[in-house]
Amino acid sequence: MSMASTMVASVPVFGRMFKLEGEPELHDINAWPAAMIMASFIWFSVAVLLGISMPLTQMLGLDASLFYTAVTAHGAAMAFPYVFQLMMGVGLHRAAGCLGKPLTGWLPAAAFWCMNIGGILFTIAILMGLKISYAVMYPLPIVGVETGQWSMTSVVIGFTGIAGILLTVILLYPVLTIKLMFFGKEREELVLSRRTLGDPGMLGMAMAAFVLLIMGMPLLIVASAVLLALYHIIPFAWVGWATDPLVFQFVFYIFAHNLMEAMAIMVISAVYATLPLYLADGTRKLYSTKAANLALWILLLTSVTSFFHHFYTMFPALPSALSYHGNIMSWGTAIGAAITIFTVAMTIIKHGLRPEAGIMAVLMGFTLYILDGASAIVTSNVAFSFQLHGTMWQAGHTMAVLIAMSMMWMGVLLHHYPVLTGRVLDPMRGKWFVILFTVGAIGVSYAFLAAGAAGMPRRFASWNQEGWMIYGYLILFFGLCLALSMVIFLIDVSKARRIGEGVVASPPKAAPAE
Amino acid sequence: MLDFVYQSGWGAFGVLLLFQIPFLVVFLTIVFRKAYVNTAPSAISDSSVARWRSSWLALAIALFLIINLASIKFFPAVYSARAAASGVAVTDVTVDAQSWYYDMSAQEFEAGKPVRFNAQSLDTVHGFAVYHPDGHILFTMMLIPGVGRSSLIYTFDEPGTYKVRCLEYCGMSHHEMSDEIIVTASAS
Ligand SMILES: [Cu+2]
Asked: Which whole number is the average pLDDT over A234-246?
């Protein structure tokens, strides 16, 4: 037993959902992904409770500091230890099984521990009073200390946690992916379904890894410099270049925007890889691989510089030329999306679909993702941005893109689950999970967008002004639908039955990972 | 009509539905028909696939161009430049934002007269959003400390009390960071 599989087996409740009972020779590709996926669902469970507590604090008229604690902790847990870690676990499992290379050694272990210890440290800092939202809002952490809102110790602990998370996202995960793809020797027995970089499913993973590494590096450098100064290892005077608010905001959004885009590229490539396996006529191919790859390239090239849309409303500090560029590039991603929609729809029309929970979750996640893409490009138009920036519209966009991606990854996870754990899931529970999740996600995202259209500010602990509370009730109702769907999902994985005990694996025969 | 589309949040919501509803209806119909009603492969010739693909992309590009080109005159940089070039006297106002209040050099204006808001933050990131008395946002600015003043020219059309709010999370009393602007009826 490896460290990862021992750890999974020893965690109460969640451990049972992901412990490895499949073929022992596959442990080298299963163990760390199982640990990452398990940890991501623990984070998710906490994040859901925090999410539901936000409208509740407003309805019950509780202290604003509770709301801001929940906003910060919920956003941070959702974006990184949940969605990113889920993606990392499922994505690495997919890559390792396609390339026949083991996920062992210090790299996957470091990626796991830096993410989770980082998440725990950041959470401790939030509980100590650091309320900076998941977007950090630099220089708020420092101004908050100067104005007595929280302590310097909480800032130091919080930044240490953020550094751990960033280390995994920007360095360890991309390096691990690149190592899997370009280095090391294939082990025949680990190949579950051979794929090359020419497949859209692998191409997207490689692109995402390079985007994270390259676009995240400036933030990693700036954040490390600030951290060294916070620990008094170097004097603050040396890091003036890094503590300038504009520098921090720019490197943050160059990273944060492209993180979302990299995750989108990865998940779209996972859709491209999974859909063909569920075609009714057994074709196992997209209607056009070329169109699929073209869409990924368009998405990659347009998304890199579309991050300027985060700064339109600081004109003229952001020159008009860069606003126009950001506007055009943001809408350019929609052209990539249009090609993707066509490829997915035409593949389904031409070959029919086997409606199993895994692929339906992937397709409903894809639907949410496209719906959200529309809200993203609308707010990326310069004129609309001046009405919507900083409102619930953008909170809704951030939330919807994360929910959509997590839905697609959960679909891919349902597909991989038998080979990962050696157990199969109940189709009926899977179906109800997909239905409730879809209804909850679409409902909650419309509630946010409508609230934004009505001018309701995001990250704002006073929903009773201007009759905004109605959106709060809608958010709570659909949020509860989402929570219920997740309860069904978690029951489903904890009651999965072992393959071989009168149970046959349901996704095609021995359930290849691809 | 275009004013409503580009200058109120609900106009943006309408454009959003214009994209979302057709996609939702068509895509879900395809998925459910091919998953539950008739899963057999559809015989579509390559030439009709190509025709569909061209029409679809043409539609996407047309929407891209129409919605963005029509929006240009509503870009604050564009309407500010137009107001500045019109020869009408512009009232300059400075706005200093800090945790958690605004310091404005003037808060009462006359309807129909252009006002140039020059806003900056003195501590952390703040916003300066001006709301119409009916509750919709007229414009918002993000103020990052140390970058100089953000500016735009706005002409209030109607008298009334306009709310100012901070839309960038700025700490424990962020939700209390607000102020008011009074617009009086045009004297002429
Ligand atoms: Cu503020």
From this structure: 89
Contact across the interface for B175 and A64, Cβ inside 8 Å: yes
| DSSP symbol at A313 | G
Measured in angstroms, the CA of B34 and the nearest CA of chain A are apart by: 5
Residues of B in contact with A458 (CB under 8 A): 167, 169
CB distance from A322 to chain B under 8 Å? Answer: no
Q: Which of B6, B39, B165 sits opposite A384 (nearest CB)?
A: B6
Please, which residues 340-379 of chain A have a Cβ atom closer than 8 Å to chain B? Answer: 341-342, 345-346, 348-355, 360, 363, 367, 370-371, 374-375, 377-379
Give the 3-state secondary structure percentages of chain B, helix then strand then coil, rounded to 5.
40, 30, 30
C-beta of residue A274 within 8 angstroms of C-beta of residue A412: yes
**Residue A514: per-residue pLDDT:** 39
Residue B55 neighbours by CB under 8 Å, 6+ apart = none
Question: A510 pLDDT band (50/70/90 cuts)?
Answer: very low
Cα A340 to the center of its chain, rounded Å: 20
What is the model's pTM? 0.92
A434 pLDDT more than 50: yes
Q: Which stretch of DSSP H or E encloses residue B54?
A: helix B46-71
Query: What's residue A501's pLDDT?
Result: 61
Read out DSSP for A139-203?
Answer: THHHHHHHTTSS-HHHHHHHHHHHHHHHIIIIIIHHHHHHHHHHSS---GGG-SS---TTSHHHH
Calculate the CA A425 to chain-centre distance: 24
Average pLDDT score over residue span A224-234: 92
Residue A194: per-residue pLDDT: 77
